[in-house]
Amino acid sequence: ETGVTQTPRHLVMGMTNKKSLKCEQHLGHNAMYWYKQSAKKPLELMFVYSLEERVENNSVPSRFSPECPNSSHLFLHLHTLQPEDSALYLCASSQETGTGGETQYFGPGTRLLVL
Amino acid sequence: GNSVTQMEGPVTLSEEAFLTINCTYTATGYPSLFWYVQYPGEGLQLLLKATKADDKGSNKGFEATYRKETTSFHLEKGSVQVSDSAVYFCALRDSGGYQKVTFGIGTKLQVIP
């Protein structure tokens, strides 16, 4: 139990569906992240929120839309996805102090399958 | 830009064997270095880290030393157990303001009884 929860754990959706992934951190951290994990590829950073402001958007297609309503919650809204978007989506949080040595705490991930 | 190189695996070892997973990096500044581990069905969790040259991180019998001269952070364990079967990720992060974490591709370790 890392203090970061994600729901749902598994999701199957069609290409025309709209769904949302939810992440909640109980650690009092000031930064939250979305990563995409695909087989045989390094973790891909998608979005970063620091103090509820988006500080990084890593050239992610617009069919992925993040939302950070407060420092504890992060959403990833999905619409008109493609089969190649099937992957494990990981949420993480950290307490940023600017030293670079901060640990990221990961949730268990949402396994997404797009049909 | 920054990069991390590690072997993909899988690495298959018998229980109680010695483990080395190599990790080398390129970075523009003076990064902190990390090893994260991912057990089946779970997210990543920090295994150990080192924030400056010659530091040694250690946890659960695993060790890694930050070698600036060889730009390496190899993970070692003297005697692996079946419960160590997982995917191991080397990562780095520069200091100074917000800097993103760069991960390696991950090395899958399988330990057989």
Q: What is the number of helices of chain B?
A: 0
Structural class of chain B: mainly beta
User: How many β strands of chain B by DSSP?
Assistant: 12
What's the story with the biggest beta sheet of chain A? 7 strands, mixed
Cα end-to-end separation of chain A: 31 Å
Give the overall pLDDT of chain A as a whole number.
91
Count of helical regions of chain A: 0
Query: What does the average pLDDT of chain B come to?
Result: 93
Q: Topology as H/E string of chain A? A: EEEEEEEEEEE
List how many beta strands of chain A DSSP finds: 11
Radius of gyration of chain A: 14 Å
Distance between the termini of chain B: 41 Å
Task: Tell me what you see in this structure.
- The complex is a heterodimer of chains A (115) and B (113).
- Chain A is globular and about 40 Å long.
- By secondary structure, chain A is an all-beta fold.
- In chain A, a hairpin with a 2-residue loop joins strand 7 (64-70) and strand 8.
- Chain A is built from no helices and eleven strands.
- Chain B contains no helices and twelve strands.
- Chain B is globular.
- Chain B is an all-beta fold and 113 residues long.
- In chain B, strands 2, 5, 6, 10, 11 and 12 form a six-stranded mixed beta sheet that branches. A four-stranded antiparallel beta sheet of chain B has the order 3-9-8-7, with no helix packed on it. In chain B, strands 1-4 form a two-stranded antiparallel ribbon.
- The N and C termini of chain B lie far apart (41 Å).
- The model of chain B has no long low-confidence stretch (mean pLDDT 93).
- The chains are: A mainly beta (115), B mainly beta (113).
